């Protein structure tokens, strides 16, 4: 692990000045922290993207964290909903979303004389279907954590050593990933999903997803939490909340939380 970290420091030193796509998640926070320590404040710019596909609480968390890390940061608005291809939600949806984001980041980098745009993709991401990788390649966005084969476990361990508050933060993904391919994405659906996940978090669940299937909601929680959801009081409270959100049927996935479960249909 120490060897990988030294390689990362050397790689960042070589790049000299970078813009980092910053979500406040485990990976991008670790990358931002190391870049800030190695390159200094004036040579690092964190950009936080705000849109209906990303919860407002997560944007606020990222902004507060950027301040805590003492980095220069900028919040931008992305406009995926101007693209009908994104709204129609094909299996390449992530490509259109990332194209919108990375195009804006490249423009900001150009305006600020920053030669390199980085993201926090890690080596484990290679095991899932990620069409956004094509957009990253087309726009020459670099992924040093992936290139140096940092796994999520590596990053969490190193983040803990660096006393980063994200070391045990649950994994996250944009809200559009909660909607089955082929189902049109609307701000209304995204808001329902966001509110549902926020409610579950308030009950103490941590790693979770709310998957939207029309009038059915499929809730994923980590395996250890599955016994908790069947307790009468908790189960009834969850059912009531999701019925209020407009779902007729409230279900729990017995396989529990797993990343990219919507890709299982591909």
TrEMBL record:
Would you tell me the protein name for this molecule?
TIGR00268 family protein
Q: Which SUPFAM superfamilies match?
A: Adenine nucleotide alpha hydrolases-like (SSF52402)
Offer an example of a GO molecular function term for this protein.
Answer: sulfurtransferase activity
> So which domain of life are we looking at?
Bacteria
Spell out the catalytic residues. Answer: 174
- Alphabetical list of PANTHER family matching this protein: EXSB FAMILY PROTEIN, NAD_GMP SYNTHASE DOMAIN-CONTAINING PROTEIN
NAD/GMP synthase domain sequence ranges: 15-81
Organism this protein belongs to: candidate division WOR-1 bacterium RIFOXYC2_FULL_41_25
A matching Pfam family: NAD_synthase
Q: Which CDD domains match?
A: LarE-like
| Any GO BP | purine nucleotide metabolic process
């Amino acid at each position: 692990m120490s060897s990988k970290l030294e390689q990362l420091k050397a790689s960042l030193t070589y790049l000299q000045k970078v813009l980092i796509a910053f979500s406040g998640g485990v990976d991008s926070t670790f990358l931002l922290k190391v870049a800030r320590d190695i390159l200094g404040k004036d040579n690092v710019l964190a950009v936080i993207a705000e849109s209906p596909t990303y919860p407002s609480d997560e944007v606020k968390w990222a902004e507060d964290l950027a301040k805590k890390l003492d980095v220069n940061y900028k919040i931008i608005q992305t406009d995926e909903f101007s693209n009908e291809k994104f709204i129609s939600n094909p299996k390449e949806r992530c490509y259109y979303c990332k194209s919108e984001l990375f195009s804006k980041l490249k423009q900001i980098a150009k305006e600020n004389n920053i030669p390199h745009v980085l993201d926090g993709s890690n080596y484990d991401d290679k095991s899932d279907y990620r069409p956004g990788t094509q957009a990253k390649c087309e726009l020459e966005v670099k992924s040093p954590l992936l290139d140096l084969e940092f796994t999520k476990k590596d990053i969490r361990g190193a983040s803990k050593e660096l006393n980063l508050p994200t070391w045990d933060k649950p994994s996250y993904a944009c809200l559009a990933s909660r909607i089955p391919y082929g189902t049109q994405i609307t701000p209304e659906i995204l808001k329902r999903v966001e509110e549902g996940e926020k409610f579950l978090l308030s009950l103490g669940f941590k790693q979770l997803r709310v998957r939207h299937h029309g009038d059915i909601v499929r809730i994923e929680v980590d395996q250890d939490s599955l016994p908790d959801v069947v307790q009468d009081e908790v189960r009834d409270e969850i059912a009531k909340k999701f019925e209020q959100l407009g779902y007729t049927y409230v279900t729990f996935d017995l396989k529990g939380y797993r990343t990219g479960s919507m890709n299982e249909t591909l």
